[in-house]
Every structure is written in C-alpha cells, then in structure tokens.
Amino acid sequence: xxxxxxxxxxxxxxxxxxxxxxxxxxxxxxxxxxxxxxxxxxxxxxxxxxxxxxxxxxxxxxxxxxxxxxxxxxxxxxxxxxxxxxxxxxxxxxxxxxxxxxxxxxxxxxxxxxxxxxxxxxxxxxxxxxxxxxxxxxxxxxxxxxxxxxxxxxxxxxxxxxxxxxxxxxxxxxxxxxxxxxxxxxxxxxxxxxxxxxxxxxxxxxxxxxxxxxxxxxxxxxxxxxxxxxxxxxxxxxxxxxxxxxxxxxxxxxxxxxxxxxxxxxxxxxxxxxxxxxxxxxxxxxxxxxxxxxxxxxxxxxxxxxxxxxxxxxxxxxxxxxxxxxxxxxxxxxxxxxxxxxxxxxxxxxxxxxxxxxxxxxxxxxxxxxxxxxxxxxxxxxxxxxxxxxxxxxxxxxxx
Length: 400
Hints:
about 40% helix
C-alpha cells in the first residue's frame, strides 16, 4: 500500500453493469483509505455507488440502458455515435457539477469521453479503468484498421469522425480520434492477463493488469445456500449476464440438459426479460431466479454456462470453475476463444446450444483432470496480480 495523502478523486462512468461493476471494489477501497471520491454516474446507479462510500454526482445521459439493448442498433456506426452524442451533452453538465470542487485526480471508464477532457481542462492526471481487453503493439494494423476501414470510407462514418475531431480540437486535445479512444496515457486493466490477447505485446508502462477486483458482496447481493435436496450433487450455474437475457428457448435447453441427471443441481438466472412461465415445467433439481449472487455460487459450483462477458469470465477463472461459453455479443466472442485457449472452457455457439450439446460439454469438462489443473493454475496466477489493493495502489501512485 502507498502512503498517499487523502485526496479528492473523481470517477466517471456510464449506467451499465459491465462498466460500473468491475471498478466498484476499487472505489470502495479508495474510500476506506481516506480519500474523498466523487462518482459521476446517471441516477439509476447512484445507490450502487453510494454503497461504496463515494458521493454520487448525478448527470443525465442519453445512452441506451441495459433495459433496452436493442436500442443500440445492429451496425457499427450505431454503436459508436451514441457515445459521442452523450459526451457532448454531458460535458457541460459535469463541468458545472465540479465547478469550485475540482478533483486532484480523474479516474474513468473507457466509455466516459468527458472525463479526460475535464482532466485536461483542470490540469490534472487521468487514469483509464478498462473492464475489457486493451490495445497491444500492432493492434491498429491487425484489428482496428480492417474493422473501421469501411466505416471511415462512408459518408456517415466521415461525418462521425469529423464531429469527434472537432469536439476534441475545441477542447484542446488535438484531432486524433483513434488515439483518444484507444491509447490512454495510463490504464489500470480490470481483467487478468489471461484474458488479454497478445498480452506479451501490451505496453506495460501504460497498462497494468490487476485481475479481478472482488470483495464481499453479501451485503448487497446476498448469499447462496445449497438446498438440502442438492447435498452431495454437482452444481452448474447458468447466466447470460444482465443484457442479452431474453432467451427462453436457451433456458429450456439448459433445463432439459440437466433435468434427468440425478447427480446434478441446476441454478438458472434468467434476468429481466424472460417470462418464467415460458420455461415450462421446472423439475425439482432446478432453481430459477431473476438474479443470483453469482460469485458466491461460483465458489461452490462445479461448472458455469456463461455468455463470456468480461465480468463472468474472470469470476469463472477466479474460482477455477470450468466454463461453457455461449457468447451473445461484442467482446464475448473473443473472451470465449481466450477461455478455450486456456484449456478451461468449451465454446458453444448459440445456434448449437441444444440440451445434448450443453450437457456433453459440461460433463466432459468436469470429468477431465487436466481442465481442473489448468483452471487452478489460472486462478493462482490471477491471485498474484493483486486485484483491488493493487488497483488502489496504482491510483494512489498517480497522486504523488
């Protein structure tokens, strides 16, 4: 632990579980160390932020929320434009909110574009918190340029980049949009190195991997107690996270996969959008919930069927739980492939995720002692990365 003097730290994020949750324990730790943390966040996450001891600074966002994932559209440009629009309208709100109470340091999620702008305006350091993979040496040539080439050649794409460059220039940050979005001055990476592609080519002077930042969540999430009927049985948890959960057919396949296996108990999280009635009859060996204390269950589980989001992937790794990855969107496909490359998971495309395939994947994983050995090795390596305390130390190092 460093010995930084108590300071005023400002954190900026968006109203999305996948962007708030990874850093929440770091914020709690910074408050416990005596720092005053102001956390800029839309109102829907204010209570979650306040539970850490930080002070929510509420701003109005125009971004789609986790409750309406379809509002993001399907084209690449439809995923990008909302962040710029939101940043432009949020910047004056946030500047006004901190006027006369400017912080000593800015922390920000990778999606919070106003944060580094404000740090530049205030003349203080900014540190990016990345909840997923980061750029490596060669990333632009290997990934970014092919991915964005068609967009940058289109009229709508050119207009987007021109507007973004103009906004940056207006705020004194030059006109290099790609660098602003993908190359922070300093970044604390809230995933383990095991989930990072080409980790050996990541610039360690900029990016530091701290692994999973996990704490005691029982006060806010509760705990899971194995029912008496499941004593002596293996446990499999199924969760597709918080957004892409309107999948009744998939949940029925999971129930079918384990309903007739007397040695297994299934815990099924269905989220907000699925009607429990659409699942049909639920056998005795299956429990269904809207939400579950995922990490607490994984500490007791034998297998995890997951969408392979960054949070779920690293919780599975941190508990050495073999995983069946059924990715739904964005970075989940890459995470699934990384988990497979580590030898701790199977990747089952959603189109192939029927009862037979899911059951066979789980049973094969759990029966393989090499999978267990590899999972334990990854868990141990993650534990050595430092987690919450290491992340807080890195933040405090910026204060000095």
